[in-house]
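Structure first, sequence second, as always.
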């Protein structure tokens, strides 16, 4: 169990570091990203263990579950890309007019 916790925390930290390296402009502070990655991975490991139930303690499944949940948590931190946006001349949910 200790190996699963340490492995999940390290994988969450690695995933958060990779996200910071690739998407630094679109993420909040590095401390927030790193903590969210680790906590998401730990929650994912717990959730995977809970979903599998007793007798199905596989290290690989737990680590995959932790990485997936950590990736979801990190994706929630992303902000829209800053850049030129199209200006919409129509009001939202309006129908095009014939004329």
């Amino acid at each position: 169990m200790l190996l699963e916790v340490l492995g999940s925390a390290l994988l969450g930290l690695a995933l958060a570091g990779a996200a910071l390296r690739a998407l630094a402009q679109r993420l909040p502070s590095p401390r927030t990203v790193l903590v969210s990655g680790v906590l998401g991975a730990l929650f994912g490991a717990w959730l995977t263990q809970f979903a599998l139930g007793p007798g199905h303690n596989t290290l690989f499944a737990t680590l995959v579950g932790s990485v997936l949940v950590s990736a979801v948590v990190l994706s929630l931190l992303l902000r829209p890309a800053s850049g030129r946006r199209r200006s919409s001349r129509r009001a939202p949910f309006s129908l095009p007019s014939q004329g």
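Margin note: The chain is about 60% helix and 0% strand.
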